[in-house]
Queue: 2 jobs
Job 1
Amino acid sequence: KFGHSSINQIHQEIYDYAHGKQSEIEELKQLAKFRRQFLADVSHELKTPIFAAQGFVHTLLDGAIDDKKNRMKFLKRAAKNLDGLDMLVQDLLTVSHMEAGDITMQKEPVDICEMIYEIFDQMEDNAEKHNITLKMNEPRYEEIKVIADPQRIYQVLLNLITNAVKYSDEGGRVEVSLNEAGSKLDIRVKDNGIGIPSEHLNRIFERFYRVDKSRSKAIGGTGLGLSIVKHIVEAHKSEIKVVSSPGQGSTFSFRLDKYKPQ
Ligand code: ADP
């Protein structure tokens, strides 16, 4: 009964058990490290707009309120920073819900073509201001339906198109294209903007990761847009891909299931 092989077996079991515990401990350590880093990143990101708004408000209280020429300017800057803070908190809540896994996708047939034109309408003023053209390979009246969570997919497209405009130079061109790929619809957002150096490509989907910190900060944004995009696209059982080269532009793409009426 206590033959050689069973002792070996017991040894093996003890070894496996210890090894399992060891990797559990490693996992917990990783998780703790990850949490600490997240908290540090969040605090840092929150501090910037809070300090800025605080600075403008205190300057006003300290007397700048009587300076007719500057008071409006200071108030507007304080408001801008508070708006940024609001956006950041909203994005943070979205990310934390998604990472906790408590967001379920409400999938239904969605006319994606119409949705893209809606986003174009919403962004028209901003694009015009920078002389950027928004283009689509399908006409507005074309009905192209996919199965998706409409609000979440709207957020994905809005983030990708906003980035395409944000990271383009004056006179740029942003093109969205829809192409059938079997039972899927391939969706692409292409710009001819500043592009992304290859060494940054697999990191841009991480939270708060920015290629050029000062430029991205000046342009505005929470640094969470692409991590939200990745979460939502993956929750639709797809993958977000990017092809880019500096000075040439970037193309982000993903696929969704086409809607097949019964
Ligand atoms: P942000 O709020 O900084 O735009 P995102 O998560 O949306 O945050 O994007 C992360 C980073 O990826 C950006 O700061 C920018 O450096 C880079 N990036 C995203 N989209 C583009 C694009 N279309 N062209 C060039 N760089 C981009």
Job 2
Amino acid sequence: EKGGYDTFMEKEIHDQPQAVADTLLGRTDESGALVLDELRISEEQLRAVDKIIVVACGTAAYAGMVAKYAIEHWARLPVEVALAHEFRYADPVVDERTLVVSISQSGETMDTLMAVKHANEMGALTVSICNTHGSTIPRESDAVLYTHAGPEIAVASTKAFLAQITAAYILGLYLAQLRGGSYAEGAQAVMRDLHEIPGKIEELLTRMDRVVEMANFMADTRSVLFLGRNVGFPVAMEGALKLKELAYIHAEGFAAGELKHGPIALIDAGQPVFVIVPAPDTPHELHKKVVSNIQEIRARGARTLVIAHDGDEDVVPFASEVIRIPQCPPLLAPLLAVVPLQVFALHLSTAKGLDVDQPRNLAKSVTVE
Ligand code: BG6
């Protein structure tokens, strides 16, 4: 049942091309327009939406943070991301024009369920992005958009994360199409780009030898930092979460722009720092800005473990290691950039002799508040 792999997590990392491909399946008609029949909310109601709030926990919340950048850009709707347990008790501003999107692999996380119930009581429209048919959260929601990642057994989420980003992107593109803004036509081109992602993950998974070696060398590491910007910021958070969950190492993700406002004080000789570099064509020169962050921390002795696109030579002079990901449009990069971080955490956990699939103190779905 582990498909020839040693652990469920390793299998699930390799399931990712299929998880993304299956989640994309059947979302467009012959003309290439998005169709979301399963959504069961009228187009009129969806057109009236003036705000989105994503509620989720853990990895699912990071998928929501990634989606915020894309949905705001495409659909021109404000998107907030709330940790489900904070949302419920924070007196959130919600009405019938608010679309509350919950994201949950299991569909049973109590914190997320309570947030959805609260949103329902306040009259919001609720959509569940969920991987488990017939689970509680979709049942309690007005509508559901299933991710088709297949069963995820390892406690630490991998393929569900990629499928959640994919589904949230489909929702964002659908809203863009429906609202008919300047991005309505762009939606089809993004769908085409998304369809190329599974092949690129496949290719990326063949390049992981050096990442495995790095993890094996680093079994004694006590702290690892992660920096990212724009959609790379939640990827940094997710990379850190994977290390905490799997290898019990102190790990923190930061927004790269925040470095000079505090975290740079943490940098001393030998401190390992993963940096998720934006695609070179990311607007507002974010690529250049992150490259200078790498330069700054390298000058202070950091070991810079740089995740950069193929062909990006600007990072080379400041990188202790360069991990290459295939080229793709800037907003789709999280679907690739997170993969080496998953593989790194898996192998560091293995190198420490830990139980990859069942980390201590964690459960696959937490059904208490
Ligand atoms: C945590 C799990 O308890 O719940 C995480 O350890 C997961 O891996 C989070 O991301 C949310 O779970 P779900 O099922 O709601 O996506």
